Protein 1
Amino acid sequence: MQIGPHRLPNALFVAPMAGVTDRPFRKLCKRLGAGYAVSEMVTSRRDLWDSLKTSRRANHEGEAAPIAVQIAGTDAAMMADAARYNIDRGAQIIDINMGCPAKKVCNKWAGSALMQDETLAIAIVEAVVQACAPHGVPVTLKMRTGWCDSARNAPVLALAAEAAGVQMLTVHGRTREQGYKGQAEHDTVAHIKRLVKIPVVANGDINSPERAREVLQRTGADAIMIGRAAQGRPWIFREIAHYLATGEHLAAPDLAEVRGWLLEHLDDHYSLYGEDTGVRSARKHLGWYAQSLPLSREEVAHFRARVNASATIDAQRRVVADAFDAWIDTRESPAWKLAA
């Protein structure tokens, strides 16, 4: 895979997810097999750029290149400024958000709501491409198949975006109306792949090595993007990479490996957010990790209760380390494997 001047190590991408794909999570996913990761979306509103939330989202310390930042907004000039702002802070690829289905985003006509106004959508694309060109920074676009079932205009926008200079398209196989309900369809992705010459990435319901291969074969896509399936299971990327290369399943990581990755994730997470916010925002990640393990419902509930009751970094980290040590000790062997 090539995006502008950037050669990617593989075609397995981490989807941008608000509140999830921060720097620590992106770094761990890349370490565990992802070839590319896109940041949480950064607002185009200049008045919010000095906020703590935006400064954290614009933090790329220690992250492997290329640094890809997603921007969101509804005004072409503001989106161009947002692109320049993030380039000044290390962004090497700018991704335009036309895929977010969240009401608080769409109610402001940003995200996937832009697909209802093709003229505005393309004006934004053109402005961002023009802003990035002097810096040699490629622009990519992530969108849905359309606003609703009767308005699946992703193919029209794909052709217009390509003509405007976008260098890669990612398509989530649902309309905005669907949110994350039902099943993602990838026929639209396959259709767009046949229409355009730039790389096309398939996104939506890719949650196993078999599903990854199926989507790639069915769509002819150049890459796949994984979001929710990586929550609490960032090693899914190395599992998929091994399966695509060999046709065989990679042995699942043992619990000691997961313990190490999780504690590494936590330490990086705390370093970015500090104690108060770090402890609170780590809870969702810890819940997802617990759900990915072959634990009983009672064990998961007990673990989450202890994690949520921890008010300091030391206390929360100790809960995690002790829980994993106990799980390892109570299984028949330290080589106890995770369920595939």
Protein 2
Amino acid sequence: MSRKRVYFTEDQFQAVYQLVSERVDYLVERSIDLQDSEILDDYEHLLDAHTVLAEADKWVLCNEED
């Protein structure tokens, strides 16, 4: 599997992370409300992206001079 490297400012990262988190929260709530686990299966790629972003949020940040 190939990898891609993407650079964000802190504000950009937080905006993307918040957007994805809100969407994932909504999907989980809908899945529970409708008792339909297939909703989560349909958006597995978004859940995977959220997992990556959550892990990246723990990383130490470097500025452009580093």
Protein 3
Amino acid sequence: MADEEKIDESSKYNEASMQIMRLHNLWVKIEENVNKGNLKEWQNLLDSIWRELRADVNHLKEPEKTIKENKLLKLKVLVAASKTRTEWNNALNGRHEFLKQLQDKVGKGGIFIDNSEKDYE
């Protein structure tokens, strides 16, 4: 039984590490595309970030609220894309910031604080 628990624990931590690496790679690609002005690719990569974080949303206190906020921001991006590049850029930036904050909230970013490890540093 103890061996099974170790396997499960190892798998959980390995997947978390792999997800953080995937997220990092996506954010790097996003910055490259933002700097080149590739708004469509930026939009697609933000969708990939959402797919990576979506399962973690279920662990938040109010997952429905976060899902709804993402849908509204995505809709805003889609509407803005049909208007001016400035509006599209601003809408993408809003969703970008939302996803960065979400990544932190679910503990896959740089500012997550685990209260159970408060005294550990």
